[in-house]
């Protein structure tokens, strides 16, 4: 990305201006180094949870050589904010110090926990790498901090210097998925392939194991661990029988997606084993109904499209809330994805091998180009030697501008066209970073409720409480260990993964009355959550007259589904709770004392 395009002024040589400006340059260089440190810290959570906005924070002094007092990074949505961690680590040294963050704080709590931690700790200055890319959060934390008397400097706006270039780039790269999603309404899509020196991804026979080295394959596992989903085509399933798992020991396992128009797929495949990792098969409407039933019997989700193409698949995954997609497909599908304009970045592993073969496949199929002047050029290209191989990476589409034009909620919500202007307005919620993200069970709001013995227990989120209650009262003596494990889960995502996996693999652990009581369990947790947090209570009441819909395209019980076919029970329960709070049923309002919910 050209520096001039981002509003940078040309660098000034120190020996041509007074010494005071040299000091400013040194001061800015120190600021930039701390912001880059915050960006590097924020990247530590990759591979442990599904990708999310990455936040890192460093608290330090800038006098002399500077000194770091506290650091922190956000592990996942629902865990302690990076800013709070850094403040706690720095303690009394916060007073008069400077806080450095790679991105403007964007609290999902709704009560500005991160911003408040700076103010209460006595931080006097905050340096921010980039503004928050989501329009409903953009600039709000900056304004709040400045209103409270703190000095706030943003790289490229308040600090303009050549020394900030690397730090600003790090801030953009570490949150590239969120930037692309915000500006383009599409997940960040990366095409990865390994090829020989003569540009082949397999021999003429189709044999492809192994082109790249073991070290390169380990890097691929890391790329998978940073992605929400990994996409392959049917030919890859038939010839390679991949597992598509990270195999790196991290906690995050990306969704595995197979695109196949005809469903000409084998009945025996590693991807049909969904005990550890789920699989979605995307196909054309009406393709091999019998095979669709077979996949469903294996626990594989099947999604039909009128016409299967990369653009519609990416749009669907955007609606599903995904931030980043890794494409590990063959030449035909990769060419289609590139032609559709959905690929943002390329990772090409080049092995020092020559295999030849007139008909040996290449990594990208026909693009319709006849002259070299039509070739697509990567930008911001990087080269890295990995064992005997060379990794070449670069962007087909630049990281979006820092001030993307983001449509309003009404423009992006898939509102049913059959609704008339006289119908009640719809309010959609799904991911915690959305405007009404606090309505999500994954929002980071601890609740305190009595267990089966009447003892009060604090749960990190509604999702923790709900998943654990699947096993409360189970006759299986081992159920208690699963409840404790879910209670200790570091994030709502992990709690959900544990609960769903245990329910799927060990149905004998689930309480016998679960299907009849699960909505009651959910309602109790929601009632507690929206009772003990005043700002959430007010937010819920502010939606009076609107229909609340959880915009999950795949959860047809709690969510509204992709085309409105879902039961939307979470939205229904919230509307019921809203009605109760508005006074329709005063007799059942909970008594709240010191964060306890008594029913």
Keywords:
Cytidine Deaminase, domain 2; disordered N terminus; five-stranded mixed sheet; nine-stranded mixed sheet; Dihydrofolate Reductase, subunit A; Tetracycline Repressor, domain 2; globular; alpha/beta; 3 domains
Write structural notes for this entry.
This protein is α/β, with parallel strands linked by helices and 599 residues long. The chain has three domains: 4-174, 3-Layer(aba) Sandwich (Cytidine Deaminase, domain 2); 178-395, Dihydrofolate Reductase, subunit A (3-Layer(aba) Sandwich), CATH 3.40.430; 409-598, Tetracycline Repressor, domain 2, CATH 1.10.357.40. Helix content is 32%, strand content 18%. The protein is built from 18 helices and 20 strands. It has helices spanning 19-42, 82-90, 113-121, 140-147, 165-174, 176-184, 214-225, 234-240, 289-297, 310-319, 331-339, 409-412, 462-468, 479-487, 492-505, 514-532, 534-541, 569-584; strands at residues 56-61, 67-73, 98-103, 125-130, 151-154, 188-196, 229-233, 255-259, 279-284, 301-305, 324-327, 345-351, 379-386, 389-395, 426-429, 447-450, 456-459, 547-550, 591-593, 596-598. The strands form five sheets. It has a nine-stranded mixed beta sheet with strand order 10-9-8-7-11-6-12-14-13. The protein has a five-stranded mixed beta sheet with strand order 2-1-3-4-5. It has a two-stranded parallel sheet with strand order 15-18. Strand 19 (591-593) and strand 20 (596-598) form a beta hairpin. Residues 1-22, 402-423 and 585-594 have low confidence and may be disordered.
